[in-house]
From TrEMBL:
Organism: Halorubrum rubrum
Domain Methyltransferase FkbM: from-to ranges: 205-260
Keywords, in A-Z order: Methyltransferase, Transferase
Swiss-Prot/TrEMBL GO biological process terms: methylation
SUPFAM superfamilies according to UniProt: S-adenosyl-L-methionine-dependent methyltransferases
Record Pfam families: Methyltransf_21 (PF05050)
Domain of life: Archaea
InterPro entries, alphabetized: FkbM_mtfrase, SAM-dependent_MTase, SAM-dependent_MTases_sf
GO molecular function terms attached to this record: methyltransferase activity
PANTHER family: METHYLTRANSFERASE, FKBM FAMILY PROTEIN, SLL1173 PROTEIN
The protein, known as: FkbM family methyltransferase
Length: 272
């Protein structure tokens, strides 16, 4: 099947995000049927409804802990939480997306069940400039990725970045977590009383889902001790193709740590 021309893809993205602005503004939440069950969302589309990574995560026990790196507006976090006792810790550095995740979670009665952290994850703790794109899903720590498909950078925000190894209980590093940065990141929350400070400890994960627009390897490197100690299921959306440097480096890193990757298109389901 031929790929659509670039101009048509750009038009599709532009239409989708303008429609999303409208549905959030009007408060129109519609049912989204997914492989993990049905939930309601203010998003106009359902791009992860048949996502193989979501299906793999939903096969975890109902009391599993899932760390969601790059949670966006909750397309994985919310259906995984609905009707279960799963602990979902969602990391999202894009302020607009985090606001929308909070609204979607509240619409499903999950405001106190999804642990929202307004921060990025990586292999060093500190802060980085984050490029918020006019196509919110393209927002990234890399300017080029934020301007794909005719998008432009709408704002540049300095956001806190943590290593998972500094947060997961039992593997926390000796360095103190920067609570000032954590508190600042939570200050703009829709309802700050429902948002956990980003530097608070998180439970050992049964799974880590990663969708971070090319930043995948940095997230995994920052979780190396956690991965070695707990051997969680890894579901990684890979922003690259077999044969390019990024995908090859990611495959090598996983193999060196005893993980086999079941590649389902750009979604890799990795078990150790």
């Amino acid at each position: 099947m031929l790929a659509p021309p670039a101009w048509l893809e750009r038009l599709g993205f532009r239409t989708r995000y303008r429609l999303a602005d409208l549905t959030y503004a009007l408060g129109i939440a519609t049912p989204k049927r997914t492989v993990a069950g049905t939930y309601r969302s203010y998003e106009p589309t359902n791009p992860h409804g048949d996502d193989p990574g979501l299906a793999a995560l939903d096969r975890l026990p109902d009391d599993a802990t899932v760390l969601d790196a790059g949670a966006h507006v909750g397309e994985h976090a919310i259906p995984l939480a609905v009707g279960t006792d799963r602990r979902i810790v969602a990391f999202e550095p894009n302020g607009e997306s985090a606001d929308r995740l909070a609204r979607n979670a509240a619409r499903n009665g999950l405001a106190d069940r999804i642990d929202l952290r307004r921060a990025g994850l990586g292999d060093e703790r500190g802060s980085l400039p984050f490029y918020r794109s006019t196509f919110s899903k393209c927002s990234a720590f890399d300017r080029d990725r934020a301007t794909r498909w005719g998008a432009r950078v709408d704002a540049v925000e300095e956001v806190p970045v943590f290593r998972l190894d500094d947060l997961v209980e039992g593997v926390t590093s000796d360095d103190a977590v920067d609570d000032d940065a954590a508190d600042a990141a939570a200050a703009d929350a829709v309802d700050a009383s429902t948002v956990t400070p980003v530097g608070d400890p998180v439970p050992p994960p049964d799974a880590i889902k990663v969708d971070v627009e090319g930043h995948e390897l940095a997230v995994l490197r920052g979780a190396e001790t956690t991965i070695r100690a707990h051997r969680p299921l890894l579901v990684v959306e890979v922003h690259g193709t077999a044969g390019d440097d990024h995908a090859d480096a990611l495959a090598a890193w996983l193999a060196e740590r005893g993980y086999d990757a079941d590649e389902r298109g750009d979604v890799w389901i990795c078990r150790g």
